[in-house]
């Protein structure tokens, strides 16, 4: 359960996600959410997600939809592969229409479609290196854009 308010506005978000494992290696879930925008109508969302892990390979998918009149869907399909205990790869395709996310707060590019590629290397128990590339297009104009980044995460 999440509830929050954006800084500097009266915009509010409410969400509830639940998941369960119907069989070993499977997880199924669902989300209900509301984005209440200051001075405007609230938008409601629902989503379904699934994940399956088979040894070193993981698969996941999510579909979401808002009650906006158009451009109101989002979906993600992805896979990950553990090369060994320290190294992993992932590839994800996403398409998020303009009204398919909550005010551009999605994990994936709003109004974007395309691929994300990632390599993770666990340096030690607390430190991870991530190399990330995205190759995208806007949903409405089909304009291409991409980015490359590396990050180092440290847990303390």
Descriptive report:
With 156 residues, the chain is mainly β. It has no helices and ten strands. The chain has strands at 2-5, 12-20, 26-36, 43-54, 57-66, 73-82, 87-96, 112-122, 127-138, 144-154. β4 and β5 form a beta hairpin. It is globular and about 50 Å long. The two termini are 26 Å apart. The relative contact order is 0.12.
SS summary, helix count: 0
What does the main sheet amount to?
A: 10 strands, antiparallel
Form type: globular
Q: Could you name the ranges where pLDDT drops below 50 across 5 or more consecutive residues?
A: none
Helix content: under 10%
First-residue to last-residue Cα separation: 26 Å
Structural class: mainly beta
- Radius of gyration over C-alpha positions, nearest whole angstrom: 17 Å
Lay out the secondary structure.
Blueprint: E1 2-5, E2 12-20, E3 26-36, E4 43-54, E5 57-66, E6 73-82, E7 87-96, E8 112-122, E9 127-138, E10 144-154
Q: Brief description of this entry?
A:
The chain has no helices and ten strands. The chain has strands spanning 2-5, 12-20, 26-36, 43-54, 57-66, 73-82, 87-96, 112-122, 127-138, 144-154.
Keywords:
10-stranded antiparallel beta sheet; 10 strands; single chain; 156 residues; 0% helix; mainly beta
């Amino acid at each position: 359960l999440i509830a929050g308010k954006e800084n500097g506005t009266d915009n509010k978000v409410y969400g509830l996600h639940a998941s369960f494992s119907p069989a070993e290696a499977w997880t199924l879930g669902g989300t209900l959410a509301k984005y209440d925008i200051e001075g405007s109508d609230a938008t409601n969302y629902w989503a379904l997600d699934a994940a399956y892990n088979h040894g070193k390979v993981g698969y996941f998918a999510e579909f979401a939809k808002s009650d906006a009149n158009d451009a109101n869907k989002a979906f993600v399909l992805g896979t990950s592969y553990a090369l060994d205990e320290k190294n992993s790869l992932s590839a994800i395709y996403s398409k998020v229409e303009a009204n398919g996310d909550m005010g551009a707060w999605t994990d994936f590019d709003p109004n974007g479609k395309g691929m994300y590629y990632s390599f993770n290397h666990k340096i030690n128990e607390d430190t991870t290196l991530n190399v990330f590339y995205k190759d995208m297009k806007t949903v409405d104009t089909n304009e291409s854009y991409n980015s490359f980044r590396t990050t180092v995460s440290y847990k303390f």
